[in-house]
């Protein structure tokens, strides 16, 4: 959960988000090295009288051609690795379908029979003490921790986007099309997100809440929902 005056990312709660944070730090260090080198050369040119003949300086031309290529390779290789990791889904333990509407989400646990519910934002007048305004919902998404989860995202009316920053997930919900992604939570917790595609007047009022729980709790929760109506949280 983000806090006031936070400059960095939220705490990573999935392997993909951990890789994204590490790549962000790696890219920032490369950018810092480039800026420092450029600043040093500019300072040197302004303060020193350089007598180097740059017209025939083939060594310098070779350096400023090869060095940027090396920098691009250092940025491209880890980036491609993360892209393939985000796109790879190997034998998920659970499939969750998220359907975007104006302005709420519908979730379907396709591995269970008749396990479907709508998730609306909790109004401020009904918000329990200690909960977050504009981020809490009446029905949370419950998933087992340390289990690969496949998430299928679509929409029924306009463009939406299912995004949970601490899990490193942001997938567009497009009417008539199924997009899929995967998550693995590394610890139990409650993770908040929001629709990240402008979808109308109440775009900012369709939050996402994912609760990661141990497997026995998830099994008892799913059994309870299969036999009784879904209670409000």
UniProtKB/TrEMBL annotation:
InterPro entries: CcO_II (IPR045187), CcO_II-like_C (IPR002429), CcO_II_C (IPR034210), Copper_CuA (IPR001505), Cupredoxin (IPR008972), Cyt_c_oxidase_su2 (IPR014222), Cyt_c_oxidase_su2_TM_dom (IPR011759), Cyt_c_oxidase_su2_TM_sf (IPR036257). Residues 91-224 form the Cytochrome oxidase subunit II copper A binding domain. It catalyses: 4 Fe(II)-[cytochrome c] + O2 + 8 H(+)(in) = 4 Fe(III)-[cytochrome c] + 2 H2O + 4 H(+)(out). The keyword Magnesium applies. Its cofactor is Cu cation. Keywords: Copper, Electron transport, Magnesium, Membrane, Metal-binding, Mitochondrion, Mitochondrion inner membrane, Respiratory chain, Translocase, Transmembrane, Transmembrane helix, Transport. Binds a copper A center. The chain crosses the membrane at residues 27-47, 62-84. It is found in: Mitochondrion inner membrane. Pfam families: COX2 (PF00116), COX2_TM (PF02790). Gene3D superfamilies: 1.10.287.90, Cupredoxins - blue copper proteins (2.60.40.420). One of its GO terms (molecular function) is copper ion binding. One of its GO terms (biological process) is ATP synthesis coupled electron transport. The keyword Cytoplasm does not apply. It comes from the Eukaryota. CDD domains: CcO_II_C (cd13912). One of its GO terms (cellular component) is mitochondrial inner membrane. Belongs to the cytochrome c oxidase subunit 2 family. PANTHER family: CYTOCHROME C OXIDASE SUBUNIT 2, CYTOCHROME C OXIDASE, SUBUNIT II. This is Cytochrome c oxidase subunit 2. It comes from Strix leptogrammica (Brown wood owl).
């Amino acid at each position: 959960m983000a806090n006031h005056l936070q400059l960095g990312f939220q705490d990573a709660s999935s392997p993909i988000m951990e890789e994204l944070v590490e790549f962000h730090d790696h890219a920032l260090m490369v950018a810092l090295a480039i800026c420092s080198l450029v600043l040093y050369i500019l300072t040197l040119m302004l303060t020193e009288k350089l007598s180097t003949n740059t017209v025939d300086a083939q060594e310098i031309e070779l350096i400023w051609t090869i060095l940027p290529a090396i920098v691009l390779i250092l940025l491209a290789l880890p980036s491609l690795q993360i892209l393939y990791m985000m796109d790879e889904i190997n034998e998920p333990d659970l499939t969750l379908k998220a359907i975007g509407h104006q302005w709420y989400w519908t979730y379907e646990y396709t591995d269970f029979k008749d396990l479907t519910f709508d998730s609306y934002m909790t109004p401020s007048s009904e918000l329990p003490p200690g909960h977050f305004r504009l981020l809490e919902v009446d029905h949370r998404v419950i998933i087992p921790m340390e289990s690969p989860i496949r998430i299928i995202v679509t929409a029924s009316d306009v463009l939406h986007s299912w995004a949970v920053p601490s899990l490193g997930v942001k997938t567009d919900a497009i009417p008539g099309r199924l997009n899929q992604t995967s998550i693995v939570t590394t610890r139990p917790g409650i993770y908040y997100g929001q629709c990240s595609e402008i979808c109308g007047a109440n775009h900012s009022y369709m939050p996402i809440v994912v609760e990661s729980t141990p497997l026995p709790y998830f099994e008892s929760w799913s059994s309870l929902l299969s036999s009784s109506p879904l209670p409000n949280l």
